[in-house]
Each structure stands twice: as C-alpha cells, then as structure tokens.
C-alpha cells in the first residue's frame, strides 16, 4: 500500500532510502536545510557535489548519503519566488517530479522531502504545499519502486499548511 505522510522533524535524521535537499544551483552547499544536510553527511558529500557541475532549477541530481541515515541525497534547486510570473509554479513542480523520478530510477522505496523553496526562496507556503501534495500523489499513482513519500516539516506552521492541503486534496 502506497502512502504519503506529513511529519514534523529534522530531515537529516530520517532513515529514508533517499532524502531530498532543497539545494541551490551550484550544489556547493548553503544555508537552511542544505547546510544541515551537508553538516550531517560530512565533507565527502561536498566532494561528490563538486564533481556534478551544478544543477539547473527544477532539475535533480543524486549523490550518496555518507554519514546520513539515508542511502542517497537527491539535490534539487527549487525556484526563488519572484512574484509568481517567472514560471515558479512549473519549476517547483519539476523539482518534485524530477526528484521522484530519480528516486524511482535508483530503486528507492521511501523518499523524504523538505518543504522546497518555502524558506529563504520565499515561495508562498500554501501555494507550494498544493503543488507538492498534488505532484507527489500523481507520482505515487504510477510509481513501481517508490512506495512511501514523507514530507518532513521543520516547524509547526509548515506542517499545518501541508496537513490542510492534504485533507483538502483527499476530500
Ligand atoms: P529554500 O532555499 O528552498 O527556500 P530553505 O532551506 O531555506 O530552502 O527552506 C526550506 C524548508 O526547509 C523551510 O521550511 C525550512 O524551515 C526547512 N528546513 C530547514 N532545516 C531543515 C531540516 N533540518 N529538516 C527539514 N526541513 C528543514
């Protein structure tokens, strides 16, 4: 039985087959969840990321998880919010879709996401949650390997936004 679950927590502690990193296009680390993932994974993660030559917004690249409990890290730069008329919605959907495709390709059964773009990148939380929930559910309808997707929220406000979106979506 496939499932989508929303939880409160620190994604660096989650033992999923893959955790997703809300990266920037350099893939060389940054603040927020990106910094936390690099700190927890250790310097080998940055070493591997250096060889990837960055990643365009909405696309995704995969590395090993090193000292993390997760086997893989999938790095995706979400869009920076610029008012909404710079293809932000489409790019955020691409980040979720391409991350999930990569997880499927690598045989991952469980995948954990942070709330991509809703921190420093300022994507409005309610709109981002709708895109994330819709894209994840659509993907789970046809995935073969990926069975469980977890949305790991770092604060209560984010968790509540995703829970509300999920209950609207399922009703
Ligand atoms: P972006 O640049 O894509 O906006 P941020 O890292 O600034 O990325 O924020 C994305 C979301 O990740 C925010 O909701 C932030 O609170 C959350 N976050 C920060 N640290 C962690 C963590 N360790 N685990 C899960 N989520 C986190």
How would you characterize the overall build of this protein?
There is one protein chain. The protein is α/β, with parallel strands linked by helices. The protein has one domain (3-170): Leucine Aminopeptidase, subunit E, domain 1 (3-Layer(aba) Sandwich). Helix content is 40%, strand content 19%. It is built from five helices and six strands; from the N terminus they run ββααββαβαβα. The protein has helices at 32-41, 43-50, 88-105, 125-142, 156-170, and strands spanning 3-8, 18-23, 61-64, 72-77, 110-113, 148-153. The chain has a six-stranded mixed sheet, sandwiched between helices. Strand 5 (110-113), helix 4 (125-142) and strand 6 form a beta-alpha-beta unit. Helix 3 packs parallel to helix 4 (125-142). The mean pLDDT is 98. The structure holds adenosine-5'-diphosphate (ADP). Adenosine-5'-diphosphate (ADP) binds next to helix 1. The site of adenosine-5'-diphosphate (ADP) has 21 residues, from helix 1.
């Amino acid at each position: 039985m496939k499932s989508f679950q929303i939880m409160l927590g620190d994604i660096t502690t989650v033992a999923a087959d893959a955790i997703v990193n809300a990266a920037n296009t350099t893939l060389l680390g940054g603040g927020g969840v990106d910094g936390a993932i690099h700190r927890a994974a250790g310097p080998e993660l940055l070493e591997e990321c250096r060889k990837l030559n960055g990643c365009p917004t909405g696309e995704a690249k995969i590395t090993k998880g090193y000292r993390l409990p997760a086997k893989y890290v999938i790095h995706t730069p979400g869009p920076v919010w610029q008012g909404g008329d710079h293809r932000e919605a489409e790019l955020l959907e691409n980040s979720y879709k391409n991350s999930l495709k990569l997880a499927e390709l690598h045989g991952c059964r469980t995948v954990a996401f942070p709330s991509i773009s809703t921190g420093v990148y300022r994507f409005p939380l309610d709109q981002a949650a709708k895109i994330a929930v819709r894209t994840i559910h659509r993907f789970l309808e046809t995935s073969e390997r990926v069975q469980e997707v977890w949305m790991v929220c770092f604060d209560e406000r984010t968790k509540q936004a995703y829970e509300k979106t999920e209950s609207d979506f399922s009703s």
